[in-house]
């Protein structure tokens, strides 16, 4: 009987150890699943941010390109009528649109440089429509992505 009891106690100890190992493995798996889930959520957020950024950049390029195209067409008409003052007015619009596009390119390059340096971003809630309306006319003059400036947004 003592021999059988000792065997049962040993078997019980082995089962307890296996149970503890299983619990530890389950906890590690649960933790790994949470990490993967968090990484996936961050990747999805990054994808949304990239899509939003590309959409914004596309819009920002279309506006000055439209100004350039329409102004060049108008200049052609004024050349035929020899209206130098109107031509100069539209050439100034073209210059302004080209300058805006150049500033936009600099902003994109600044953003890319910040990303390549793996700088930390401060995440805050942000209404992009409100910011766009407020900054639409001063954006390029303010240079909000220039050295020393802070860019923040939230997904």
Describe this structure in words.
The chain has 155 residues and is mainly alpha-helical. The protein has 4 helices and no strands. The longest helix is centred in the N-terminal third of the chain and has 80 residues, at 2-81. It is rod-shaped, with a radius of gyration of 31 Å. Residues 137-155 have low confidence and may be disordered.
Describe the structure concisely.
The chain is mainly α and 155 residues long.
Key features of this structure:
155 residues; mainly alpha; 4 helices; 0% strand; rod-shaped; disordered C terminus
Outline the secondary-structure elements.
Layout: H1 2-81, H2 84-116, H3 128-135, H4 139-142
Mean pLDDT equals 78
Portion in helices: over 70%
Distance between the termini: 69 Å
Please tell me how large the radius of gyration is: 31 Å
Tally of alpha and pi helices: 4
Low-confidence stretches: 137-155
The total of beta strands comes to 0
> Which range does the strand content fall in?
under 5%
Pairing-aware structural class of the strands and helices? Answer: mainly alpha
* Sheet having the most strands: none
Q: What spatial form do the alpha-carbon principal axes imply? A: rod-shaped
Order of helices and strands: HHHH
């Amino acid at each position: 009987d003592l021999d059988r009891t000792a065997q049962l106690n040993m078997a019980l100890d082995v089962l307890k150890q296996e149970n503890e190992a299983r619990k530890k493995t389950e906890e590690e798996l649960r933790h790994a699943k949470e990490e993967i889930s968090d990484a996936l959520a961050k990747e999805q957020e990054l994808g949304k941010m990239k899509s939003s950024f590309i959409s914004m950049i596309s819009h920002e390029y279309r506006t000055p390109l439209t100004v350039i195209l329409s102004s060049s067409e108008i200049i052609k008409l004024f050349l035929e009528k020899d209206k130098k003052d109107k031509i100069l007015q539209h050439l100034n619009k073209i210059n302004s649109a080209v300058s805006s596009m150049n500033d936009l390119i600099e902003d994109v390059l600044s953003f890319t440089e910040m990303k390549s340096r793996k700088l930390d971003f401060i995440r805050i809630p942000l209404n992009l429509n409100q910011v766009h309306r407020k900054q639409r006319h001063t954006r390029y003059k303010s240079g909000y992505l220039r050295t020393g400036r802070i860019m923040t947004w939230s997904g």
